[in-house]
Amino acid sequence: MTTSIVWIRNDLRLGDNIALKEAVNHLREEDELLLLFHIHPELVRDFDLQQDYFFQTVKVFNETSGPLHFIYGEEEEAFHSLFEVVTDAGDIYFNKAETGFGKKRDERVLALLEDKGIRVHTYIDHPLHGAEEVTKKDGGLYQVFSPYFKQWQKLPKPGMQQVDRDKLSRHLTDRTEEFSSGGEKYNQLTKKPLRDWQEVGEEAALQRLAAFLDEPVYYYDEDRDIPSKDGTSLMSRYLRTGAISPRTVYHRVMQDTDGRKRQDGVESFIRELAFRDFYHMVYYNHPEAGDQELTEKFRGIPWNEDEEIFERWKRGETGFPFIDAAMKQLNETGWMHNRARMAVASFLTKDLLIDWRKGERYFHQKLADYEAASNIGGWQWAASTGTDAVPYFRVFNPVRQSERFDPHGEYIKAWIPALADVPKTYIHEPHKMPGEEQKKAGCIIGEDYPEPMVDHKRMRERAIEVYKQRKD
Ligand code: FAD
């Protein structure tokens, strides 16, 4: 008899999980299967909404699909403690990371496992198409999304990888008593959650997807730009934690949508799934992208170092209601609508001329759906420094964004109570309210809601000038 180990990471589900399926398929009658989870110090670094959500998913998985066996600390220490308990380990299966911290950690662990003589089986499971699957004719990787997407569409999609649940439960072992608890330092599972997360785990993911495919998906192309509407799938947090796989999302869309209904929404949604793979591929190809501008000429921009300005952006006190509503949505819920992400990222980098890396790191702390590749991709796009980014001279106007995408101020009012009674005429620029109107609306500018912290027109010109100087 040997024990096979499945190392669970950001694939916190039983359904459609390649490594788990392969491990179960290869078990002999006498073998046992142990589910492992490694809590690396990096995973608990600055505990905030992002990590809180992730660990709530770990907790739900442990309770409904586990038990998970936890090991703690740097790679060597953690895996040493594993093999002290599991002395008959034969094979280890996991869905490997192709990018970022996970990739480096996997490389370190692979070396340890090889030394130990363990048979290692790794798979690509997190994207729909792995980084090297979508290539140009000459084998090179794409820089621009449109041709990438054309090629992505042509490729046959990997099928769902269903796990033999009966066999899994026959072989699943519970040796948790032999594993240490990790103490206070590491054990995030006993902490009180930072907020009352309602949407956690595999079951919740499948339910949300079904609700989205029932109707909203057909109007996704139109509704996806309106932050006050519940018009997007909210799949990102589940994809990030692996509570659902991108294959399941893709195939459910294909199978469960009605071909006789509007297809513009369905097609537009599939395109966004490809965007996730695109940014994954870009990050794979440019591991330095988290720290460095991909466009060389835009390296070394003299960013504004004023911390107080940065803090006002973080708190949502810029005096631009659309920007402030978005930041409050992020701070309170760990999620922000895509249209608003683009607007706040543009505002930080162009209107405030603050380094996009600071924004990227703040999102890292707060986003329940944080994916390094998509976040870095999104920030470098907004800062005009990435591949296929917004041109530097096209600066988002925060008031115009507000008027177009939140015409009645519903999103603004949902997140900024001080503006709840401001009439529609002034909702995008409340500082323009005459004194009498301010009193009537119960919103005195400078007391209840701030003046705009910058003059957009001037800041736009300044940003264009700064970028232009780098370019020339
Ligand atoms: P839907 O609109 O329903 O889209 C479906 C899925 O497609 C999403 O769940 C996501 O997996 C993928 N997707 C959609 N848009 C994008 C995109 N632009 N790039 C990559 N994938 C996309 N997305 C993340 O998942 N994690 C991040 O950390 C992240 N950071 C971002 C930072 C900035 C500055 C910007 C502009 C965008 C960022 N995005 C990120 C992309 C996008 O905002 C979110 O994926 C989306 O808002 C998630 O909500 P949803 O699941 O309802 O998306």
From TrEMBL:
Sites where the protein binds FAD: 220, 232-236, 269, 272-279
EC number annotated for this UniProt entry: 4.1.99.3
GO biological process: photoreactive repair; response to light stimulus
TM region(s), chain numbering: none
Keyword Flavoprotein: yes
Catalytic activity from the UniProt record: cyclobutadipyrimidine (in DNA) = 2 pyrimidine residues (in DNA)
Source organism, top-level taxon: Bacteria
Name of the top EC class for this enzyme: lyase
Sequence ranges assigned to domain Photolyase/cryptochrome alpha/beta in this UniProt record: 2-128
Cofactor stoichiometry and binding remark: Binds 1 FAD per subunit.
Keyword set, alphabetical order: Chromophore, FAD, Flavoprotein, Lyase
Family: Belongs to the DNA photolyase family.
Entry protein name: Deoxyribodipyrimidine photo-lyase
Taxonomic source organism: Salimicrobium flavidum
